Amino acid sequence: MKKLSLNENFICRIWEDSSNYSGLKTNEGLKVGIIDLGKRNNDAGPDYIGSKIKIGGQIMTGSVEIHRTMDDWFMHNHGSDRKYNDLILHVVLYNDLYSENKRAVVSSERVVPTVVLSDFLTRSIHEIWKDIINKPSESFKLPCFPANMEIHFEDKAGFVKRLGLERLKLKSEKFRERIYELKKFRKDESNPEQAFFEYLCEALGYSKNKQQFIALSRKIEIERVKELDLSAADTEALMFGLSGFLSDRTSEDEYSDDLFERWTRIRRLLKKEEMFRSEWNFFRLRPPNFPTLRIAYASAVLHELVMNDFYGRMRNEFEESKDILKSMTGLFHEVKISRYWKDHYSFGKRSQRENKGIGEDRIKDIISNVIFPMMYFTASDTGNGNLMNKVEYFYRNNRQKAPVNEVSKVMQEQLGISSVNPAVEQGLIHLHKFFCVKGKCSSCSIGRIVFGEEGVHEPLKIIIY
Ligand code: SF4
């Protein structure tokens, strides 16, 4: 396993969410069950105090210490520090070769059992890491906060807007690459539509089902769907069939029987491999965000793309619009999910309220991450200066309500900049992802002012998540 350089604060976030691991055991093979995590200690001494943990059948109360590897125990000299005498458990993220046979011993000469967390993770450490950085806690703190509040607002905002534009170019470049890739392998005329559909699906997957939606959308060839001349119900059968929900049905009703029959017929014509139902994530999602509802919406968009030139309408709407947010919201709300999904959030599961396709936050996300990059690409590809000016103008000036993205929410608070338009919101996300997370404070305009010419030293680069 590749060892990510995670700090202790990050490992504490992993420890505090028990869904990240299961079947914990100490190095001696004793079962570990957490009854109470205890309280996080921000003073000197162990990381958690008042923890209650069952180890090898015995309930113990005391403190817990978190480290990246066993080696840290010795480097920090905890063995001679009396504050660690009531330690009941030592948790390390990784095993290390140098201290394989060493054990954590407190100053009263008692051996403290150690758990190597990475042996019991329920997902890859990369997935957990991504989840944590995208969901900052209430204690999120940038190394430059609060000193950055002294910097002139225009200096910070100018830098963030520039990054927002960089992000737009980067995303539009990805759009270009995908179109060229499609041109190479699929010699059809629907490449921009195909790429648009794939990026739209990616945005519908959000963080929990992003990869699954990308995989699903790449199984669908718009040109082939056009040839098959599918009805709205057939298109839904195609999407749910390919995603694996029909071959592995958890409930049977008239609707899913009908979809299954349609899928059996379409499958013979397509000869595509299905995904597995189990690949889709429902865990910790609110029903309106369930992948089943999102697939229903993606099916409706696919049908509109194939039958009613949704892509062309969207481009025209953009070029003629005076308020992108308003006109795109109207367009995406016109796409209607089928009757069944209006009162179901999963197969056989009725919803309390009427489902309406996708909400405004998701549409806003699609505008920022799909429509702006796509129109930027179209303008540069066709050399359309007017369109390019329009894209940049709206990107910088289209006023929007509070951000939906968790990262931009905390970033705007820590930098004193409101993400009032897409350029600022995307700039804040870009700053976090490519500068703050990577500890590149010395290359950041804000960092250069806060930390001066000397730059920021390694221990201070740590972001509190
Ligand atoms: S990269 Fe810039 S904004 Fe981010 S923590 Fe460092 S100085 Fe602050």
Give the helices and strands, then pairings.
Elements: H1 8-16, E1 32-36, E2 39-40, E3 48-55, E4 58-69, H2 71-75, E5 87-94, E6 104-105, E7 111-112, E8 114-116, H3 125-134, H4 153-185, H5 191-205, H6 210-218, H7 222-228, H8 232-242, H9 254-270, H10 291-308, H11 310-320, H12 324-334, H13 339-342, E9 344-346, E10 349-350, H14 360-382, H15 385-397, H16 406-415, H17 422-436, H18 445-451
Parallel strand pairs: 4-5, 5-8
Antiparallel strand pairs: 1-3, 2-3, 3-4, 6-7, 9-10
Helix pairs in contact: 4-5, 4-14, 4-17, 5-6, 5-10, 5-14, 7-10, 8-9, 8-10, 12-14, 14-15, 16-17
The structure holds iron/sulfur cluster.
Residues 142-144, 431, 435-436, 440-441, 444, 446-447, 450 line the site of iron/sulfur cluster.
Describe the structure.
The protein has 465 residues and is α+β, with helices and mostly antiparallel strands. It is globular. It has 18 helices and ten strands. It folds into two domains: 8-134, no CATH class; 189-397, no CATH class. It starts with 7 loop residues before the first helix and ends in a 14-residue tail after the last helix. Strands 1, 2, 3, 4, 5 and 8 form a six-stranded mixed sheet that branches. Helices cover 49% and strands 10% of the residues. Helix 5 runs antiparallel to helix 6. The chain has helices spanning 8-16, 71-75, 125-134, 153-185, 191-205, 210-218, 222-228, 232-242, 254-270, 291-308, 310-320, 324-334, 339-342, 360-382, 385-397, 406-415, 422-436, 445-451; strands spanning 32-36, 39-40, 48-55, 58-69, 87-94, 104-105, 111-112, 114-116, 344-346, 349-350. The protein binds iron/sulfur cluster.
